[in-house]
Design a protein that fits this description.
By secondary structure, this protein is mainly alpha-helical. It has helices spanning 9-24, 30-37, 41-48, 51-76, 81-96, 105-112, 119-142, 147-167, 173-186. Residues 7-66 form the HTH tetR-type domain.
């Protein structure tokens, strides 16, 4: 006989906040979060020190999941760096087509968190640096003459895909973004 253990208050808060902040933004109210998680206000402060700590932890958790998804997508594409990078854009096309797609949670958080010292900003910066680093490695393997700036350009294209995918879903931002990515990749071997 197996018994299921119900997630504790910390996990329930994280689960609820991860879903609600994606759907409604980081400005979602504390009472809404507490109700969705079915926890007392005290749990929020005990586990996260308050809403700011919860938001930062949700961003950290999401970043780990998204970084793993980037790595898995690239690994599934094989060993060719060009194919690995283009696989990211092919995957993004699937992501932005999902009915519940709401854009980039990191961009939305950065825009909504007015305090430049909010701990969430450090998480989003680290996330972007990690993703850019993944791209830079592949671009260097491809022989791109400027892998670091090109990696930043690819991330900028992804930000554009995510923003346009949320605000102009009838367009083809992923297709346009893939074309821009191809232009960046085409510079490999020209230096």
């Amino acid at each position: 006989m197996t018994t299921r253990t119900k997630p504790g208050p910390r996990e329930r808060l994280l689960d609820a906040a991860q879903e609600l902040t994606y759907r409604q933004g980081v400005g979602v109210g504390v009472d809404t979060l507490l109700k969705a998680a079915n926890v007392a206000r005290r749990s929020l402060y005990e586990h996260f020190g308050g809403k700011d700590g919860l938001i930062a932890e949700v961003l950290r958790r999401s970043a780990a999941q998204d970084e793993a998804a980037y790595r898995a997508t690239m690994a599934a594409a094989g060993d060719d760096p060009r194919a690995r990078l283009l696989a990211v854009f092919d995957q993004l096309a699937l992501v932005v087509e999902q009915a519940d797609f709401r854009g980039c949670r990191y961009l939305a958080a950065d825009l909504a968190l007015a305090d430049p010292d909010h701990p969430g900003h450090a998480v989003t910066r680290e996330y972007r640096a990690t993703v850019t680093g993944l791209f830079e490695v592949e671009l260097a393997r491809l022989g791109h003459p400027r892998p670091a700036p090109a990696a930043g350009q690819l991330l900028l294209v992804i930000d554009g895909i995510m923003a346009a995918g949320a605000t102009r879903p009838d367009g083809d931002p992923a297709g346009a973004g893939r074309e821009l990515a191809l232009s960046i990749l085409a510079q490999a071997g020209t230096g």
